[in-house]
Amino acid sequence: MAIKILLTLIFLTVMIGVGIYSRRHSGTVEGFVLGGRNVGPWLTAFAYGTSYFSAVVFIGYAGQFGWKYGLSASWIGVGNAIIGSLLAWLVLGRRTKLMTQHIRSKTMPDFFGTRFASEKLRIAASVIAFVFLIPYTAGVYKGIGTLFELGFSTDTFHLDYSWCVAGMAVLTAVYVILGGYKATAINDFIQGVIMLFGITAVVVAVLGLKGGLVEACTKLGEIQPEKIMPGGGGFTSLFGPDPLGLLGVVILTSLGTWGLPQMVGKFYSITDESAIRRGTVISTVFAFLVAGGCYFLGGFGRLFPPPETGGKLAFDAIVPSMLTTLPDALIALVVLLVLSASMSTLASLVLTSASTMTLDIIYRDKHSEDGEVVSAQIDDSVAEKIERRKVVVMRVLIMFFIALSLLIALNPPTFIAQLMGVSWGALAGAFLAPFVLGLYWRRTSAFSVWCCFAWGVGLTTVNMLAGNPINPIDCGAVAMLGGFAVVPLATLLGPRPDTKHVDDIFKCYEKP
Description:
Elements: H1 2-21, H2 29-34, H3 41-52, H4 55-69, H5 74-102, H6 108-115, H7 119-151, H8 161-209, H9 213-221, H10 243-255, H11 261-269, H12 273-298, E1 308-309, E2 312-313, H13 318-322, H14 328-362, H15 380-410, H16 416-440, H17 446-465, H18 472-493, H19 499-505
Antiparallel strand pairs: 1-2
Helix pairs in contact: 1-8, 1-14, 3-8, 3-11, 3-12, 3-14, 4-7, 4-12, 4-14, 5-10, 5-11, 5-12, 6-7, 7-8, 7-14, 7-15, 7-16, 7-17, 8-12, 8-14, 8-15, 10-18, 11-14, 14-15, 16-17, 16-18, 17-18
């Protein structure tokens, strides 16, 4: 216990110290939200990866899908690396950086408002982002709270889940409010290094408890699935007992990152195009090791006593139960691993939500007809006061967003995986297709964006209100892929965008 407490205190001290150090970069909106658009490839790649993977993956997804699909769950990690990282950087990285810098966009809703010349689109996107980032944040809280409750409770002392969740909320708020994006990027790098070492050590240790890799695979192969879907096999087969269900999870967790504001925002802040090329490689390797390791570990969950709550299998407790027999030093490393993953994601989520509400609803920049920001004729001292006021509002909204997510996490309505499914399904279902096509296809219209917003949010919300007749994971995957049919169809049927406005937007790609 002393080792766990000491390592955790050192870790938290470093995180807060980075926040204090980064205060000098957070005095302006550009510095607080984007780190001055001057963040290097290593910091950006690690920020992308650590925002991608959190307690939601390590505790929720790895446990639930490892239990359902066995070793074939590792394909989710492979998909995260190839689709969610490599292709995301190749397809979105350069074009996002150039277009958002050209139109002076700081957030994804700001992109929609300026790219499609619609203030109403900007507001709608802001509301969607703020509302549907909350369940995802609650899922992250639940994951870290569950593990801390396990790691710091003894036979004579029980650390209550609610105190764990509340403590993480306060600590995350402190270093994000102090240092903004620069603090989160530096901390993400430190946390990413811990995640790389941690997942490797934990996988080796857990397999060692079952006699090594070969022996563990042999034991897992002897367990028969309760139900095998068409084309499926056992828990050690290539695609597991439910290949189609596995594909839905791969799509949701891999393609979904392309439409999430907190992920795409990383491309806004990177320094230049050469940094994007290096960041692509770094981010892909990081995702392959971390995500692949998490899902591979979860695939052996059936070799350990299944935890139950109220007579039902507790998916969120599967991975923590696998770790209970590890040495204290390794449990301390696991705590730091999940703490690192979770705090980085929380920081990204709350910063995204607060900046979106502040810049796109409360303090909207006025734009001319060609999309350029119209700057008021004010002196520098007044402009500086306005900048400071915006940063203050963002810091207040960060506290509000954290408090709201905390309330849900203290009484979560469902498993972590389902919370994330609702969040990612609505956000990526609404944003993914119009954002990607808006970067590449000149004819993409504001009308088609409205249709996709209605499609993504509508499908996810109706499914949720109806009691989830479609699994939230599968519903999210359908919402994302369906957007690529909705946008082109609505573009062809609706009014055409203004040619001059579109030409001005796409000038950014003509520069050498």
